[in-house]
């Protein structure tokens, strides 16, 4: 794969140089250039398809995404050359050529097995959830107006509008929601640590367990985002409860899959039980706060 990416990068350079200054390549040269580019791209695609599915769907998806970027980059470069004036090297052509180089360089940072691929996927999820938690914590600071940064235009409405502020009751409910969001962050952090410490990709069973973990963990970030969006005023307690229940369900699944997989030896079961309890604790408080709304 590394070799095919390198050859594609070189072909992009050759193609770009051939159309960087007059005279334009002859019809025969164009045919040869086109053939070389096509062969390079076919080699890249072939290498992706040769990667066995049994090596893990998470790994395969990352290789597919990298391969797609290379192919799309070459298409863009070719389009740029076809549409550019013949006299000079355009800025667009330089950018497109650099885009192919960048896409081809990605191969050096691709994970080498499914354990590394799943760890990479979990790291990305954790980053998004961390950002969401920090943003919500910032908005919930006592006395903070959650719309302060976007509601400065008087034409947008009366600043004393109750719909732009949280009541004391709202804040009590949202405190438990924050507990659930923090549990999401802790859950991803702990699962990531376990995958790095104990994860293996030596057998089909281990590879499949890692993929299951990555698949369910991918649901955490969208669930956190949905809950966070429903927490902004005016708060609909039932919508908050529904989104909190969805997130709690995803977290319970993540913990269950982790617990029954090879990444969770007996020494790791303590944090699984603790986080499972934390999810139940916060969800029960959310149910109590919203019981009167049912």
Automatic annotation (TrEMBL):
A GO cellular component entry from the record: cytoplasm
Main location: cytoplasm
Pfam hit, one: GCIP_N
Subcellular compartments: Cytoplasm; Nucleus
Sorted UniProt keywords: Cell cycle, Cytoplasm, Nucleus
All copies of domain Cyclin-D1-binding protein 1-like C-terminal, residue ranges: 152-256
The Cyclin-D1-binding protein 1-like N-terminal domain, residue ranges: 1-140
TM region(s), chain numbering: none
InterPro entries hit by this protein: GCIP-like, GCIP-like_N, GCIP_C
Family: Belongs to the CCNDBP1 family.
The protein's name: Cyclin-D1-binding protein 1
Organism: Manacus vitellinus
